[in-house]
Amino acid sequence: MASPDPAAARAFYGGLFGWAFNDDGHFTLNGRAAAGLRQGSKAAWMISISTDDPAGTAETVAHAGGTVRVPPASIRDLGTAGVFTDAGGALFGTWLRSRFVGAQVSFEPGAICWYELASHDPTRAETFYKEVFGWHALEAESAPGDPYYEFHHNNDTVGGLVPIDHRFPDHTVPDHWTACFMVEDCVTACKRVTELGGAVARSPHPVAAGWYARVADSTGAYFAVIELSEDYWI
């Protein structure tokens, strides 16, 4: 994530998820890398998608209608990072691992458990990510009138795809990715968010996988917390 106030971000996520911070610029959960943090003019979370060919991925992004925002470049001896927007304008990054392989913990309280793309045009989004990463989208379990899709790569489910529709208070919100973090209790997590100076943008509500809420940290970066039902624990 990027933050105009990294110290405030460290305090917020330390208080919410119990994260510490290491010398490589990573948040850690019980000694394992959970996310990255850098100084930025705007507070925001950004997902990173693994690639073994950063230059080739950049070319394919442009061919598929996306934009190269920051060409792939080495980050010390950690790996190679690039920043892009997809055909709908949603920002994402890519990562070629070197010394740092990526997040070392997931699907436990305080760790990443899901990535979700909100799009005005899900068909366009599926076409883009299929061309760039070989993903395909399948309709998933959802409430009547609330369509939801999942991106798949080979035999793995890698993220969600939700149309920007009546579920979004502001229908003019641009396409965007959301990082979702697992919590033990969604209501308690939202209360803690506000205690730490953040805000709850969408209150806890039931979804197919459990209870979900959209929140913002004390510097304005939006993310989601989800209390997974037992069927979704790994």
Q: Spell the H/E element sequence.
A: EHEEEEEHEEEEHEEEEHEEE
Give the helix/strand class: alpha+beta
- The coarse overall form would be globular
Average the pLDDT over all residues and give the rounded result.
Answer: 93
**Assembly type:** single chain
Layout of helices and strands, plus pairs?
Blueprint: E1 2-3, H1 6-17, E2 20-21, E3 26-29, E4 32-36, E5 38-39, E6 48-50, H2 54-63, E7 67-75, E8 79-85, E9 91-97, E10 112-119, H3 122-133, E11 136-139, E12 149-153, E13 156-163, E14 176-182, H4 186-195, E15 199-207, E16 210-216, E17 222-228
What are the salient characteristics of this protein?
17 strands, alpha+beta, 234 residues, 19% helix, 4 helices, four-stranded mixed sheet, eight-stranded mixed sheet
Provide an overview of this structure.
The chain has 234 residues and is of the alpha+beta class. The protein is built from four helices and 17 strands. The strands form four sheets. The protein has an eight-stranded mixed sheet, covered by helices on one side. Strands 6-9-8-7 form a four-stranded mixed sheet, with helices on one face. The longest helix has 12 residues. The two termini are 25 Å apart. The relative contact order is 0.16.
